[in-house]
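Anyone have tokens for Exosome complex component Rrp41? Sequence:
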Amino acid sequence: MGTPSDIKLIDENGLRVDGRTPEQLRPIKIQTDVLNRADGSAYIEWGGNKIMVAVYGPREAYPRHTQDIERAIVKARYNMAAFSVDERKKPGPDRRSVEISKVISEALQAAILVEQFPRAQIDVFIEVLQADAGTRIAGLTAASVALAAAGVPMRDLVVGCTAGKVDGQIVLDLCREEDNFGQADLPMAILARSGKVVLIQMDGDLTTEEFDRATSMILNATKRINQIQREALQGKYIAEQGGE
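Reply: yep, here.
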């Protein structure tokens, strides 16, 4: 890995370090029902990211003092495996994973009909097996599919993407080099049909015009990503009915 000064992230033809155009997504593949013992599960490959999600519940919240008498509690646990990055990560939760777990929990809670399950909890485990930038958004997008696969009642699927500034240019779906050496990173997630924003964060600086450009690119991309989510779920139900 080079340093910011010796890496050229966009070449003279306007192509990025991995050969993509500014508005091009990395390849995305989603599969459901990958874990037999979970109520719902999903596996996503998004660029170099490889992430597994397992959902359990709704079930009675325990210990009982954590129960909410009006709604279910959504507990997401985001974890990066020690082998998921080049330099081995110390096992167990750190400040970053705790923060990401919290924002994912809140985003999913906005999508789930939690009021239908008082005193219950829904557990979502997100395990990053291989990391290549944008893991929180990829994990959240897969978690939404896993919840739907588990039959958890939802207002809509949560779908997200990232954009950022690289070599002074706004680009979609940052890869690892762009995330490490770019000037800004903007992860964003919405409810697919309503467009309600359920997660937005920013690292770095963008002008108002750049921010508007980045969010517009993300919103356009979420339409394509949501179609991949829906195709994964359709494939699950076709398989359950014994179709092709």
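Residues 28-240 form a domain with the Ribosomal Protein S5; domain 2 fold (CATH 3.30.230.70).
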